[in-house]
Design goal:
Oligomer: single chain
Helix content: 10-25%
Structural class: alpha+beta
Number of helices: 6
Length: 178
C-alpha cells in the first residue's frame, strides 16, 4: 500500500528580522519511504526546490530545537504566532523559513496515524528486497556445478584444467616416464 499524505501551505522566507516573503510549499510523506518527509518550495515556478529529511527531525522540531548541519528546526513565536523555523543549508545557499506550527503539526499527525513511530521498518519490505538481491541470475548456472566432478576423461574438471607439475601423469616430486 503506497499512501501519500500531502499538504500545501505558505511558508515565510526570512530575509531580515523585519522582512520576509511568502513562499508556496508542499509537504509530502509517502508510506513507501516511511522515515523521510519531503518539502518542495517555489511551487508553480520553473525551478522548484526539493528537500528531503527525517520525519523524526520534523516531529522533534515541533517541540524543541533539533538538527545539525544542513537541516535545523526549532519552535518559535513571531508576532504572537507559533511558527516552526527551519534553517536549511546547501552548497547553493542558505535559507531561513518559517511555517505555521498548527498546519505542520496537523499534517504530521496524519503521517503518524498512517505509519506510527516505531513501525516504519515494517513498511520497508527488507526481506523481499534482500530476496530479490540474492535471487539467482541466469549466469549463476555456470557456478552451480561441482568443480570437482569427473567428466569424460575421468579426471576432475578443475584438475584437468591445471597446468604445470600437476598435469596428467605427473607428480611434482617424481618424473614421469617418457
Amino acid at each position: 500500500m503506497n499512501t501519500v499524505v500531502e499538504r500545501e501551505l505558505e511558508l515565510r522566507l526570512v530575509l531580515s528580522p523585519e522582512r520576509s516573503i511568502a513562499v508556496p510549499a508542499r509537504l509530502v510523506y509517502a508510506a513507501a519511504d516511511p522515515f523521510a518527509v519531503g518539502v518542495t518550495f517555489h511551487l508553480g515556478s520553473q525551478n522548484p526546490v526539493h528537500w528531503t529529511f527525517a520525519r523524526e527531525l520534523l516531529v522533534e522540531g515541533v517541540f524543541r530545537p533539533c538538527g545539525h548541519g544542513d537541516v535545523r528546526i526549532w519552535p518559535s513565536k513571531v508576532s504572537g504566532r507559533d511558527v516552526l523555523t527551519m534553517a536549511l543549508s546547501s552548497p547553493d545557499g542558505d535559507a531561513l523559513l518559517q511555517a505555521p506550527s498548527a498546519a505542520v503539526s496537523a499534517w504530521l499527525d496524519r503521517t503518524l496515524a498512517l505509519v506510527p513511530p516505531g513501525t516504519e521498518h515494517e513498511r520497508l519490505e527488507m526481506d523481499a528486497g534482500l530476496a530479490r538481491l540474492l535471487e539467482p541470475a541466469p549466469a549463476d548456472d555456470l557456478w552451480r556445478g561441482d568443480p570437482w566432478s569427473e567428466d569424460r576423461t575421468g579426471l576432475p574438471t578443475a584438475r584437468r584444467r591445471c597446468s604445470g607439475p600437476y598435469r596428467r601423469n605427473r607428480h611434482p616430486l617424481r618424473r614421469s616416464p617418457r
